[in-house]
Design goal:
By secondary structure, the chain is of the alpha+beta class. It has one domain: Endonuclease Chain A (Endonuclease, Chain A). Helix content is 31%, strand content 26%. The chain has six helices and nine strands. The strands form two sheets. Strands 1-9-8-7-2-5-6 form a seven-stranded mixed beta sheet, sandwiched between helices. It has a two-stranded antiparallel sheet with strand order 3-4.
C-alpha cells in the first residue's frame, strides 16, 4: 500500500490510529517540535502521554528534532517520568525531514512537523496545508529508515558545518 494523505488525515491516520498501535519501535523525525495535544479516549492529552504509554508498554521510541521545544513542551515532558529514561532523543539542527516509522512495517514521510498545526490537530482555520505519503511497502520503508538511521548514527557529523549548534553530537567531531 502506498497512499497520499493531507491535512487532517495525517492527524487521524498517523497520530490517532497508527502511532498508538506501535508494539516494537517508533521513530519520529521533525524539524519543529511543539506541545501537540491529541484525542485520547474522551479527552485531549499531550502527545507526550501517548509516547509515555508506548514506552511503559515496552516500545522503543526515538525522536530526532532540529531545535529545542518551548517551555510548555518541557513542562509536559516532566509530567511523564517514563520519558526521562525511556525516550531516546537526538537534537540535530540540520534535520528538516518529517518521518514516522512504526515497527518497520509502516511509515509516513511528508511535510508535517510534529505540531498541532502541522499534523492537522488544530481547527481548519489554524492548521497548515500539509501532505505526505503513508506506506507499508518494505523497500520504501527501508529507504525512510536508512535516512533516519544515518542521522541517528552520526554519519554526517564529522563533516557538518553546524556542530556548534549540535549539543548531542559535539563529542563525535
Amino acid at each position: 500500500m502506498l497512499d497520499f494523505i493531507a491535512d487532517r488525515a495525517i492527524y487521524e491516520s498517523v497520530i490517532l490510529e497508527r502511532i498508538p498501535s506501535s508494539t516494537k519501535f517508533l521513530w519520529l523525525a521533525t524539524s519543529d517540535l511543539k506541545d501537540l495535544f491529541v484525542h485520547k479516549d474522551t479527552k485531549m492529552v499531550p502527545f507526550l502521554e501517548v509516547l509515555s504509554d508506548l514506552i511503559e508498554n515496552g516500545v522503543m521510541v526515538r525522536l530526532v528534532h532540529a531545535k529545542e521545544p518551548g517551555p510548555a513542551f518541557r513542562t509536559d515532558f516532566d509530567r511523564y517520568p517514563s520519558l526521562i529514561g525511556g525516550l531516546e532523543r537526538l537534537l540535530c539542527p540540520r534535520v528538516h525531514f518529517k518521518t514516522v516509522v512504526i515497527d518497520g512495517v509502516f511509515a509516513y514521510s511528508g511535510s508535517a512537523n510534529l505540531t498541532g498545526a502541522g499534523m492537522g490537530a488544530k481547527s481548519p482555520l489554524r492548521r497548515n496545508f500539509e501532505n505526505g505519503i503513508i506506506t507499508d511497502e518494505p523497500d520504501l520503508i527501508k529507504k525512510i529508515m536508512d535516512q533516519f538511521d544515518s542521522v541517528w548514527m552520526g554519519q554526517f557529523c564529522d563533516r557538518c558545518a553546524r556542530t556548534q549548534f549540535c549539543p548531542d553530537r559535539q563529542d563525535m567531531v
